[in-house]
Amino acid sequence: MRQTGTRIGRRGILRLGAAGAVGLGASGVAGYLFGQATAEETPPPLVLTEEERSTIQLFQAAREAVVAISTADRIVDPWTRRSYEQPAGTGSGFIYDGAGHIVTNDHVIRGRSSATVALADGRTFPARLVGRDPANDLAVLRIEGRELPEPLPMGHSRDLQVGQEVLAIGNPFGLDWTLTTGIVSALDRELPGERGTIRGLIQTDAAINPGNSGGPLLDSAGRIIGVNTAIFSPSGASAGIGFAVPVGTVRRVVPQLIETGRYRPPGIGIEVDARVNAAVNRQGLEGVLILGLRPGGPAARAGLEPARIDRAGRIVPGDVIVSVDGEPVRTVDDLLAQFDRRAEGDAVRLTLRRGRQEREVSLELERTT
Length: 369
Fold this sequence. Notes:
- The protein is α+β, with helices and mostly antiparallel strands.
- The chain folds into three domains: 61-76 and 84-142, Thrombin, subunit H (Beta Barrel), CATH 2.40.10; 157-260, Thrombin, subunit H, CATH 2.40.10; 266-367, PDZ domain (Pdz3 Domain).
- Helix content is 21%, strand content 36%.
- The protein has seven helices and 23 strands.
- The strands form six sheets. A six-stranded antiparallel barrel has the order 1-2-3-6-5-4.
- A hairpin with a 5-residue loop joins β17 and β18.
- α4 (247-260) runs parallel beside α7.
- The longest helix is centred in the first third of the chain and has 25 residues, at 10-34.
């Protein structure tokens, strides 16, 4: 997100100054003129609640792994032909591993000529782009440095529940290492992205503002459960509706970006949806529901049957994928993670359930677009 600057209202500063002056006049001046001694009472020590202590400890443990990202554009003077870099924007990110990889949002670095990463200890490093995935608004940078902070632990998308507490750390409006708290307001939200719709997003009421993009969304145990990516706000500032890319997507996409620089997982030509699948899972259906087939794709050629909608508007399952090469799959993330570990042309053995019958089919993975 582009840096827009922080404005502090002049009126607010004046109110604070006026209040301080009145306090000095009422007590300090009276005491000076009349020699009246005022007994100073020692305030009792502040007692933090258990929840406050936990939040403070979590922030202190996590902030070192959160980074501030500044980007710049290279400008060429049309008259002198000299080039210079002009600050373009700011964002956030976090250390992913011990090799110096930094995870952030794709839109933070998209189209920029350079990026600089600042750590909480004050060190700054030039960063190089390793890979980007516009479809999921994720990107990976890398910095070279010694004694980098330890990466944060990663959670699991399947553990997320509406109502659980979350914490966001980032650099809103350039205000470095800011902590905000809230809850998971909803799951499986969708937003338009550069390449179609970004699906499966976490919605949170933790304040997310310009500059928070790319920072981690943490659970109450300090584990990363998402990457803050966008807000819904007519004013451009936080309105209590923020969105984060879920950690399940991070787990799938980032290793490929590090290895190949892009995310192009193989597939079998089926259509699945995490939100629909979660709904049928809650109703007792185990596995991944096939919603559609790509004509001519491996699944269509093998005769797999997608789900359909009956006249009452109910989903009637067709083939449900329950395992891949003998490993159970319970969610869409599980299935996609299985495909991610394989390459185009690899054969996979699917166990399918239709009604009470199970069968196995072997398919060859194809490249996805």
